[in-house]
Amino acid sequence: MPEVCGNYVVLNPYVWLKNACVVFKERIEDIYPLGSEVGEGLKNTVVTHGLASTHTHLGLYQIRLSVSEGLPLDEWVKLRAWPWEKFLRSNPQLTYYVALNALKELLKSGVTLVADMHFNEFWVYKALIDVGVKGDLSVAIMDGGVFENFEEGLEENLDLSRRASDPKVRVRLGPCTPRLLTPLQYKEVVETAEELGLGIHTHIAEVLDDELWLKSRYGMSLRDFAHYVGLGNVDTLAAHVVWGESLIEFLSSKGVKVSHPPRSNTLLGDGRAPIKSYLKNGVRVSLGVDVAPTYSLVDDMKSYLVLHYEGEGIPQTHEAFKIATVNGYQDLGFGSGELTLKEPADVVVWELPKDVSKVGLNPISSIVWGGAKVKEVYVNGVKVFEEGNLINVHVSADSINAKIEEYLKDFKRED
Questions:
Q1: Domain ranges of the chain
Q2: I need a surface site. Which of 10, 99, 199, 397 has the fewest CB within 10 A?
Q3: CATH 3.40.50.2300 is the classification of domain 3-49+343-390
Q4: Residues 6+ apart with CB under 8 A from 246
Q5: Is the dihedral of CA 291, 140, 114, 393 positive or negative?
Q6: Contact yes or no for 123/89 (Cβ under 8 A)
């Protein structure tokens, strides 16, 4: 029976054991303490539950650095995202190789569960299965963009829901954003999800233009729109919600979950989401990488703490860790996000730099701020990552990158 031990075993963001081991099969079977003498050899090791990125675009990993160019969201979409996405649509298998690299970097930051919204999602599904990471997938349904029409996007998403059969992966419908669907089209997606017992994953209130667009085109406020399309009638994961102050009561009362990507919101000029107000009023908040210069959720935890505590008190590192683990897992319905008996064994083993371990920081701060390195990752008790390598993918890193380079010979971006 597999067993991992650490100088600290973090049961949840507030409770940890010193010098302990976790025993598991598919689920956690036992957690037990070691004697202090035995624990001497584990001083640089911390064991935690896996993290969840609840809003991710794996297919955009190849253009991740472009979000740092200083372009506002709409300009970035036009000049960087859409040309790349159209290229992916004409070369769907490229999505698989790009997703492998993205998942590898996510695993380097302890991520074991990914909510992904994009195109060619069956290739993303294949990447998740091959790597062994858990997933929540949806297609970015829009009327235009990379699709001929709204119906094409919806059918691709429905086809994904029919074909994705592995229990580690679930499917939602993905009405992309109010500015790329009419309210009636958006409502149809939500009603279809309700009929099929599916959730939805959407971008909403990402930029102020979302509200202005709805008012100018349809005479609706964001709150009017949310009620009209029935966002509260299905399990809803709403990404960004930067301009959602008017939606707080709705989000809280309807159980709508907010995925917050602090770095992409900042780099694309979306604004500063009122996260503290959300949390104070009972809105569920988790963390997502979205598209960022690194696909490291640890980097987003750091950004979360700096962004939302600037001049407003002392950053609470355990809070960032909680929304990256407990909230992410619970919001996506994959478990408690804690190391407890009978929970699925999604386990991460971290190695701390020696100088950090000698200082004696608590294990959460050591991981978030101390430059911890992921040594091993297990999902449902199966080792999927070790010392920087994907265990179950039978394609070498060099081969993956060579495949991508071969495709890139034909890619022309907009300038």
A1: 3-49+343-390, 51-332
A2: 397
A3: no
A4: 221, 222, 223
A5: negative
A6: no
